[in-house]
Amino acid sequence: MNTTYISVIIMGTIFVLGASLVLSSQGYFDVLTPEPKISLTEVSFASDSLECDVFFTLANSGDADGFAVVELRTGPAESLIKQNRYFVRADTIEELKISADGIPFQYCNELQNTISITRTERG
Fold it and tell me: Which of 15, 24, 71, 81 qualifies as a FRET site for 118, CA 20 to 30 Å off?
């Protein structure tokens, strides 16, 4: 074979691989590998004298089952109180609760506490 021909084949292969990596990182191949799309909604707080209960909903609008790591933080420093990992099936809604005994009832509200999803991954 001609060395010019081999060089063109190698350069074309490198270009196709590079373009595939860029497109894949931008999510253009999600049809081939669907991802979970999990969001946190409908957060409410309730308390008795013993613990603070946080009720929330995880909704997965994606085409794949997945896990969501949910953290409950409190105070201005956002100190971590609880961290849990939840499984959510594709195209479903899960109603869940976190209970924390380290939060006094007068601080069991959305002004003093933050609840958020810190990571999602495919299940």
Answer: 24
Cα 121 to Cα 34, 69, 81, 117: the distances in Å are: 11, 9, 22, 11
Q: Three-state DSSP class for 36?
A: coil
pLDDT (tens digit, 9 = 90+) per residue, 6-33? 887 888 888 888 887 877 776 666 566 7
The model carries a pTM of: 0.72
Whether residues 25 and 74 share a domain: the answer is no
State pLDDT tens for residues 33-87: 788 999 999 999 999 878 999 999 999 999 899 999 999 998 888 899 999 999 9
Residue 65 and residue 29 share a domain: no
Residue 91's region, left for phi above 0, alpha for psi from -120 to 50, else beta, is left
Number of domains observed in the structure of the chain = 2
The single-letter DSSP state of residue 63 is S
